[in-house]
Protein backbone atom coordinates (compact mmCIF):
# COMPACT_ATOMS: atom_id res chain seq x y z
CA UNK A 1 0.00 0.00 0.00
CA UNK A 2 2.84 2.40 0.76
CA UNK A 3 2.93 5.45 2.95
CA UNK A 4 0.46 8.26 2.78
CA UNK A 5 1.20 11.91 3.08
CA UNK A 6 -1.42 13.91 4.88
CA UNK A 7 -1.60 17.60 4.12
CA UNK A 8 -2.95 19.51 7.09
CA UNK A 9 -3.62 22.63 5.07
CA UNK A 10 -5.76 20.86 2.51
CA UNK A 11 -7.11 18.24 4.89
CA UNK A 12 -6.47 15.44 2.43
CA UNK A 13 -3.99 12.63 1.98
CA UNK A 14 -2.34 11.02 -1.00
CA UNK A 15 0.23 8.35 -1.76
CA UNK A 16 3.56 9.66 -0.58
CA UNK A 17 6.15 9.74 -3.29
CA UNK A 18 8.37 12.49 -4.57
CA UNK A 19 6.28 13.14 -7.65
CA UNK A 20 2.95 13.39 -5.82
CA UNK A 21 4.36 15.50 -3.06
CA UNK A 22 6.05 17.96 -5.38
CA UNK A 23 2.95 18.21 -7.48
CA UNK A 24 0.74 18.77 -4.46
CA UNK A 25 2.96 21.28 -2.68
CA UNK A 26 3.23 23.42 -5.79
CA UNK A 27 -0.43 23.08 -6.68
CA UNK A 28 -2.67 26.13 -6.70
CA UNK A 29 -5.18 24.43 -4.42
CA UNK A 30 -2.52 23.77 -1.80
CA UNK A 31 -1.02 27.25 -1.96
CA UNK A 32 -4.46 28.74 -1.48
CA UNK A 33 -5.24 26.49 1.46
CA UNK A 34 -1.90 27.36 3.03
CA UNK A 35 -2.56 31.07 2.70
CA UNK A 36 -5.99 30.71 4.27
CA UNK A 37 -4.39 28.77 7.11
CA UNK A 38 -1.84 31.46 7.88
CA UNK A 39 -4.38 34.22 7.49
CA UNK A 40 -6.28 32.71 10.40
CA UNK A 41 -3.43 33.60 12.70
CA UNK A 42 -3.03 37.14 11.57
CA UNK A 43 -4.16 39.92 13.79
CA UNK A 44 -7.74 40.93 13.12
CA UNK A 45 -6.59 44.54 12.96
CA UNK A 46 -4.08 43.75 10.22
CA UNK A 47 -6.73 41.94 8.20
CA UNK A 48 -9.17 44.80 8.62
CA UNK A 49 -6.62 47.33 7.43
CA UNK A 50 -5.79 45.13 4.47
CA UNK A 51 -9.37 44.66 3.45
CA UNK A 52 -10.25 48.30 3.86
CA UNK A 53 -7.45 49.23 1.49
CA UNK A 54 -8.74 46.90 -1.20
CA UNK A 55 -11.54 47.72 -3.52
CA UNK A 56 -14.48 45.34 -3.28
CA UNK A 57 -14.48 42.36 -5.64
CA UNK A 58 -17.67 42.98 -7.62
CA UNK A 59 -17.74 39.46 -8.97
CA UNK A 60 -17.53 37.87 -5.55
CA UNK A 61 -20.06 40.17 -3.95
CA UNK A 62 -22.53 39.65 -6.78
CA UNK A 63 -22.18 35.93 -7.31
CA UNK A 64 -20.52 34.69 -4.14
CA UNK A 65 -17.77 33.18 -6.26
CA UNK A 66 -14.42 34.32 -7.52
CA UNK A 67 -11.79 32.23 -9.25
CA UNK A 68 -9.00 34.01 -7.42
CA UNK A 69 -10.28 32.97 -4.01
CA UNK A 70 -8.08 34.19 -1.19
CA UNK A 71 -5.47 35.36 -3.72
CA UNK A 72 -7.86 37.92 -5.17
CA UNK A 73 -6.45 41.42 -5.03
CA UNK A 74 -9.92 42.80 -4.41
CA UNK A 75 -11.74 42.41 -1.13
CA UNK A 76 -14.21 39.57 -0.68
CA UNK A 77 -15.62 41.12 2.44
CA UNK A 78 -19.06 42.65 2.43
CA UNK A 79 -19.96 45.76 4.42
CA UNK A 80 -21.28 43.45 7.08
CA UNK A 81 -18.11 41.33 7.19
CA UNK A 82 -16.05 44.46 7.61
CA UNK A 83 -18.36 45.68 10.34
CA UNK A 84 -18.10 42.40 12.20
CA UNK A 85 -14.36 42.41 11.78
CA UNK A 86 -14.04 45.89 13.19
CA UNK A 87 -16.12 44.82 16.17
CA UNK A 88 -13.69 41.97 16.71
CA UNK A 89 -10.74 44.35 16.44
CA UNK A 90 -12.36 46.53 19.04
CA UNK A 91 -12.90 43.56 21.34
CA UNK A 92 -9.33 42.41 20.97
CA UNK A 93 -8.12 45.88 21.77
CA UNK A 94 -10.25 46.04 24.89
CA UNK A 95 -9.14 42.57 25.93
CA UNK A 96 -5.57 43.83 25.86
CA UNK A 97 -6.47 46.80 28.01
CA UNK A 98 -8.16 44.55 30.53
CA UNK A 99 -5.56 41.84 30.92
CA UNK A 100 -6.57 38.58 32.49
CA UNK A 101 -5.73 37.83 36.10
CA UNK A 102 -2.64 35.83 35.18
CA UNK A 103 -0.84 38.98 34.19
CA UNK A 104 -1.31 40.45 37.65
CA UNK A 105 0.16 37.43 39.41
CA UNK A 106 2.56 38.98 41.92
CA UNK A 107 5.74 37.46 43.26
CA UNK A 108 4.17 36.57 46.60
CA UNK A 109 2.44 33.36 47.58
CA UNK A 110 -0.51 31.95 45.85
CA UNK A 111 -2.62 32.25 48.99
CA UNK A 112 -1.99 35.99 49.17
CA UNK A 113 -2.90 36.34 45.59
CA UNK A 114 -6.10 34.34 45.95
CA UNK A 115 -7.09 36.45 48.93
CA UNK A 116 -6.44 39.69 47.09
CA UNK A 117 -8.27 38.40 44.11
CA UNK A 118 -11.32 37.47 46.20
CA UNK A 119 -11.33 40.97 47.68
CA UNK A 120 -10.93 42.55 44.30
CA UNK A 121 -13.73 40.52 42.80
CA UNK A 122 -16.11 41.28 45.64
CA UNK A 123 -15.38 45.00 45.55
CA UNK A 124 -15.35 45.46 41.80
CA UNK A 125 -18.69 46.10 40.18
CA UNK A 126 -19.30 42.83 38.39
CA UNK A 127 -20.67 44.60 35.36
CA UNK A 128 -17.16 45.78 34.53
CA UNK A 129 -15.29 42.54 34.29
CA UNK A 130 -17.76 39.79 33.57
CA UNK A 131 -19.36 40.52 30.21
CA UNK A 132 -15.93 41.33 28.83
CA UNK A 133 -14.70 37.82 29.60
CA UNK A 134 -17.45 36.26 27.61
CA UNK A 135 -16.62 38.15 24.47
CA UNK A 136 -12.94 37.26 24.34
CA UNK A 137 -13.21 33.83 22.78
CA UNK A 138 -13.92 33.82 19.07
CA UNK A 139 -13.35 31.36 16.29
CA UNK A 140 -10.94 32.85 13.76
CA UNK A 141 -12.43 34.60 10.80
CA UNK A 142 -12.76 32.39 7.77
CA UNK A 143 -13.32 29.16 9.67
CA UNK A 144 -16.13 26.90 8.60
CA UNK A 145 -19.26 26.74 10.77
CA UNK A 146 -18.64 25.23 14.19
CA UNK A 147 -20.48 22.01 13.43
CA UNK A 148 -18.09 21.33 10.53
CA UNK A 149 -14.96 21.70 12.67
CA UNK A 150 -13.22 18.57 13.94
CA UNK A 151 -13.92 18.10 17.67
CA UNK A 152 -10.36 19.06 18.61
CA UNK A 153 -10.85 22.56 17.20
CA UNK A 154 -14.15 23.26 18.89
CA UNK A 155 -14.40 25.29 22.04
CA UNK A 156 -15.33 23.20 25.07
CA UNK A 157 -18.97 23.43 26.09
CA UNK A 158 -19.74 25.61 29.12
CA UNK A 159 -18.58 23.63 32.13
CA UNK A 160 -15.99 21.66 30.16
CA UNK A 161 -15.99 18.37 28.29
CA UNK A 162 -17.84 15.48 29.88
CA UNK A 163 -15.54 12.80 31.29
CA UNK A 164 -15.35 9.59 29.33
CA UNK A 165 -15.82 6.98 32.04
CA UNK A 166 -14.30 3.77 30.72
CA UNK A 167 -11.60 4.66 28.25
CA UNK A 168 -8.80 2.12 28.13
CA UNK A 169 -5.47 3.31 26.86
CA UNK A 170 -3.02 0.97 25.35
ZN1 LIG B 1 -1.91 20.71 0.60
ZN1 LIG C 1 -12.30 38.25 -6.17
Automatic annotation (TrEMBL):
Domain C3H1-type: 51-79
Signal peptide boundaries: none
GO molecular function, one term: zinc ion binding
Predominant cellular place of this UniProt entry's protein: nucleus
GO biological process, one term: RNA splicing
Subcellular location: Nucleus
Keyword Zinc-finger: yes
InterPro entries for the chain: U1-CZ_Znf_C2H2, Znf_C2H2_sf, Znf_CCCH, Znf_CCCH_sf
CC per GO annotation: nucleoplasm; U12-type spliceosomal complex
Keywords of the record: Metal-binding, mRNA processing, mRNA splicing, Nucleus, Spliceosome, Zinc, Zinc-finger
Location of the region described as Disordered in the Swiss-Prot/TrEMBL record: 150-170
Ranges annotated as C3H1-type zinc finger: 51-79
Protein known as: Zinc finger matrin-type protein 5
Native species: Panthera leo (Lion)
